[in-house]
Amino acid sequence: MEKQIEDEINLILAEYYENGMIPFHQSISDIRDKAITRAKILGLIKCKNKNAYELSIEGLKVLDFEGGVREYLMNIESKEKKDDLIKDLSIKDLKGNIFQFKLVWLFFVLNVIASFISGNFELVSIWFDLIR
What we know:
Oligomer: single chain
Number of helices: 5
Shape: rod-shaped
CATH class of the largest domain: Mainly Alpha
Low-confidence stretches: none
Distance between the termini: 84 Å
CATH architecture of the largest domain: Orthogonal Bundle
Order of helices and strands: HEHEEHHH
């Protein structure tokens, strides 16, 4: 986002904080028009009536950041990256756990076979003698 538009959005939000509303006039500069449009798209302001806007909850959050809109957007982006990373790591962990669960069943089956052979060694040796 351009620095001028960011500054104008910060100015618009500060005006709302001071005056309680954001007046909209037909004769505004292009930068202010772009800033209002961008602020609406980002959800920082919302229409109050035909000629005025009011701050949304997201706009109030922007006022809390020292860096204004830029810091707020960077914070949102970093949260999204962290959420994606957590999801990816969770999926990898789950796949690993499922693989370990399959090996547990294999270990269980081999343990049952070994227990049967060692518990009934005489019977198993008789079977091998009969097979020969």
